[in-house]
Amino acid sequence: MEAPRESQVTVSRAEFSIRTSGVETALRAVVTGASSGIGMAISTAIASTGATMCMVGRDIKRLELAAHTARYYARSVFVHEADLTDESAIDRLARRVEEDMQGLDVLVHCAGAHAKGAIDATPVEQLDNLYRTNVRMPFLLTKALLPFLKTRQGQIVFINSSQGRNARAYTGLFAATQHALKALADSLRDEVNGDGVRVLSVYPGRTATPRMQSLYELENQKYQSDLLLQPEDIAKVVLNSLLLAKTAEVTNIEIRPRIKSY
Fold it and tell me: Do the Cβ atoms of 148 and 192 come closer than 8 Å?
């Protein structure tokens, strides 16, 4: 297998392991939205520790391409094609975690939908779709996998958006779902703290991803990826938080391009 690019985020396997009954064990992680962008970068970063990975997305061909680098590092990589807005798909994923991974240490929510438009010109069906993908789906998936995470004192990461902190014009519906996702994460953090489960929300600014390129085209703006955050920037921040000693918890991270060009 071809070696990965030097720019990719990697750490030693020993650095990212846990102890269960005194035996050192590689982490087991599920990442949604793993076929491109931030989800793919986070999957690669976690895989570089020798983890067992389950990379989830809706397009099996793109997932397989994304998994290529992860397989170079990981103990094992499962690709799982699913539309998680379907509750039965969440049930199937939970069964796979139980049967094939036999436990879970890390759940990263990267899947989501985006839309932009004036509130007085946007049909309510768009709000319904955003809610179903950005709030209902992570709620149901977290609920389904939480028993595994509690057992192993795991970690949950919600990749939110800067719009989850401050809404701007024409982003009201999307921002509303991101604010809801923040509330879900904040409440969950308090609920599971006594179980030893850590919950992190990350609020990135504009990031060089396929979705962002489409947004720039929609806005009739020139897309300059080098002026934006890179997916690997966010992956490194997430990985550093996951590596933190169990005596501490990172709860919220805001990150944006060094020079704001938008």
Answer: no
User: Cα–Cα distance between 253 and 105 in angstroms, integer?
Assistant: 20
pTM: 0.90
Give the containing element (helix H, strand E) for 78.
strand 76-81
Cα dist from 238 to 65, 231, 232, 255, whole Å: 22, 11, 10, 11
Residue 220 contacts residue 244 (beta carbons within 8 Å): no
Q: What is the 8-class DSSP label of residue 21?
A: T
CATH superfamily name and code, 24-255:
NAD(P)-binding Rossmann-like Domain (3.40.50.720)
Is the predicted pLDDT of residue 4 greater than 60, yes or no?
A: no
Question: In whole angstroms, what is the distance from residue 181 CA to residue 162 CA?
Answer: 12
- Cβ distance 89 to 114 under 8 Å? no
CB 49 within 8 A of CB 27: yes
Residue with tokens 């701007």: 168
Phi and psi, residue 173, nearest 5°? -70, -45
CA–CA distance, 260 with 262 (Å, rounded to integer): 6
76 by DSSP, 3-state: which? strand
Contacts of 236 (CB under 8 A, 6+ apart): 9, 45
The pLDDT tens digits of the residues spanning 121-163 come to 999 999 999 999 999 999 999 999 999 999 999 999 999 999 8
Tokens of 206: 């504009």
- Beta carbons within 8 Å of 124's beta carbon, 6+ residues apart: none
